[in-house]
Design a protein that fits this description.
Domain Sulphur oxidation protein SoxZ: 177-263
CATH superfamily: SoxY domain
Signal peptide: 1-22
Domain Ig-like SoxY: 31-139
Keywords: Signal
CATH architecture: Sandwich
Number of strands: 15
Strand order of the largest sheet: 1-8-7-4-5-12-11-14-15
InterPro entries: Fuse-rel_SoxYZ, Ig-like_fold, Ig_E-set, SoxY, SoxY_sf, SoxZ_dom
CATH class: Mainly Beta
CATH topology: Immunoglobulin-like
Shape: globular
Number of helices: 3
């Protein structure tokens, strides 16, 4: 399913699937991504937190907390910004299913859009929750980069890791006391392929964070698939078990650049 989501998004970006996702309804998008698979209303199992209207279209926080229904666990979470040029904006694949998971990520919001978060459970259900974001109309995916190009290349891939106690606002049901929050601050220009170089007036080639692989105590924890929806120099926060002692995060971008950052709880 993960390969299908990514492949479908790539085709839609190239305009090879009609209608394009920028113009399609959620019904069309759901069909393109999930086929005949039923999507069930998540109810309280998935809660999304976004601003009513963006303060900065190029950097908007998208937050969600997921708590699996009784008798099952979460193994994948998909974030979809329906009207963004690359609607499948992030996919969280958990190495081991969890009863609860939360994330907070900075994204570009290209225009007013529904936001869907789909949680896949170990018993095969797809639970969906929806909200809507209004924007200021700056067209974030085509907005010029905010970082000097030479500086962006010099720091590309650098990461800062921070581990804190779980946000008391974050709902993690009975496991809340056993959670911490891993904050990953990335240096990456996240070029969308739609931005124009302000000197040459040529389009800047697409280059973004393709995957972010997180290991806890030398064991895979979650693999995050990115997109051009990630903001420039994106920030990502995820819930992790409080018992974890070491963290390793590997960033791979679409040009093949690989960077790794490591930290221990005692050293943070």
């Amino acid at each position: 399913m993960r390969k299908r989501l990514i492949a479908t998004t790539a085709l839609l970006m190239c305009g090879l699937v009609q209608p394009t996702l920028a113009e399609s309804s959620w019904s069309d998008l759901r069909s393109a991504l999930y086929g005949e698979t039923a999507l069930l209303s998540a109810g309280d199992a998935v809660r999304i937190d976004t601003p009513y209207r963006t303060m900065d279209d190029a950097r908007t926080r998208i937050q969600a907390s997921v708590a699996a229904p009784d008798g099952t666990q979460i193994d994948r979470i998909t974030v979809i910004l329906d009207q963004n040029p690359m609607p499948v904006s992030a996919v969280f694949d958990l190495a081991r299913p969890l009863p609860a998971f939360a994330f907070d990520v900075t994204m570009r919001v290209n225009g007013p859009t529904p936001v869907h978060v789909v949680a896949t459970t170990t018993d095969g259900r797809h639970l969906v929750s929806e909200t809507f974001i209004k924007t200021s109309g700056s067209g974030a995916c085509a907005a010029p980069p905010g970082t000097d190009p030479e500086e962006a290349l010099a720091t590309l891939g650098q990461m800062r890791l921070d581990i804190t106690h779980a946000d008391p606002v974050t709902r993690l049901t009975a496991t809340e006391a056993q959670q911490r929050t891993l904050n990953v601050s990335m240096m990456h220009p996240s070029h969308s392929g739609m931005q124009m170089d302000q000197i040459s007036l040529l389009f800047i080639p697409m280059r973004y964070v393709q995957t972010l692989d997180v290991q806890l105590d030398a064991e895979p924890f979650v693999s995050v698939t990115g997109s051009i929806s990630l903001s420039e120099n994106p920030d990502l926060s995820i819930s992790i078990p409080a018992a974890a002692q070491t963290v390793s995060v590997t960033l791979t971008d679409t040009d093949g650049t690989v960077n790794t950052a490591q930290a221990s709880v005692a050293g943070l």
